Amino acid sequence: MANNYLTTESKKLATWYFTFAAIIFGAQLLFGLVAATQYVMPGFLFEIVDFSVARMIHINALIVWMVFAMMGSVYWLLPDETGIETVGIGLGKLLYWVFVAAIVVVVLVYLLVQVGPADQTTIWFINEGREYLEAPRWADIGIVVVVLGFIYNLYATGMKGNRSGIITVLMADMLAFAGIYLAGMGYTDNISVDQYWWWWVIHLWVEATWEVFVGSIAAYGLITMIGAHRKVVEMWLWIEVAMLFGSGILGIGHHYFWIGTPEYWWEIGALFSALEPLPLVAMFIHVLYDWGKQQGAQEAQGKEVSVITNKPAFTWFVLQAFGNFLGAGVWGFFHTFPQVNLYTHGTQFTSAHGHLAFFGAYATILIGMFYLAVQGKNGIKVMHATKKSIWATSMIFGGVLGMTVALTLAGYVQVLVSRAQMGATWAGYFDGQAGIWFAQGMDWRLVMGVVTFIGFIILIQDLLSIGKAAHHER
Length: 474
Fold this sequence. Notes:
The chain is an all-alpha fold. Among the domains are: about 1-165; about 310-470, no CATH class. About 75% of the residues lie in helices and about 0% in strands. The protein contains 16 helices and no strands. It has helices spanning about 10-40, 50-80, 90-110, 120-125, 135-160, 165-180, 190-225, 230-250, 265-275, 275-300, 310-335, 340-345, 350-375, 385-420, 425-435, 435-465. Helix 2 runs parallel beside helix 13 (about 350-375) and helix 8 (about 230-250) packs antiparallel against helix 9. The two termini are about 15 Å apart.
């Protein structure tokens, strides 16, 4: 594999994307803390940064930093997988600055303008009002243009160089990545129709195309970090792709229970949603099996050296497999069936699932790619963990898991009081919010959020300093 950072413009461009992704990651956590504080102290930053604004920035920053990191990951692996420099580096740099400028403007509008008139002006220039997809229409179009330019670079490089199985999967997946996003850009004043297309983006975009992307990155990481056999890894990748698309596409039905769609979606959505954890289990077994196989081969030759060439990155890759199964699989399965979702829909169960699923499935592996970039940039042959990397990993993962448990307990109270006991009335909603368990759940969510943010600060310090540590093999 070509891994000469100093002569690979694609890898330099990747570090640009990773750097901005880390900045937006910090903003996401910061505004998450603001929103969590407002649950405990409702007057906090009242009429300065209201809860609706803090939550909007928190969620949209999550999407944006991950998209930046995903693009950076592709630019990082392209020279290694194709054996040539990425085609269209100049275009990639231009699109990077366009994307950065657009995000900065959008965030400033969110903070300084916040709301607008109830007409097309707001949709085009302030926000579209759709949860998770609040970017104004002009930014929506800009994102599509940037992603299409990125896909051109991917396709042009893949067609010109050596097209591995990983690159082939990425080329197909990124086309779906751009195409499915378009489903959420149309306008309709019928809320059921709007929600129907909205779920195409929220479910199919994230739970299908993003998961396939993660599988590709996991395959690349295993080959890079532990020397896993390419044919075996790519075989697993194709199996996971088939399972993810097979379960993920029809699994969208579990979002259709409450928007006026036919009742047959109850059975279809419940059945295929129940199958969605299977590829996540396969991925978890896949990571651990390849690690054990490579390590065993080394020990059979009488070598006691670890096969892992990047300990911090590999830790995050393993956490991805574990966190993906827990967050997307187990916590998603908690409230998927319509008989259960009747009570859990719209409670903190959903928030618990969302926090652990997004973090476990995507944030973990993208942080791992940050460490791979630091290793390549500093010319390190074997990167060992540091105290900061261990503390950062423990605090971030522990903090998110703690938030998830706290939100789950709060959701449990809502289900018991607001739904089962009070019958989903307004009075029941407020009674559920007033419960001591709910209040304590929100307190602990805030505490665990602070732990996560401190872990993030340590993570950034480690990423900036770990390349200079003397105990690495160079």
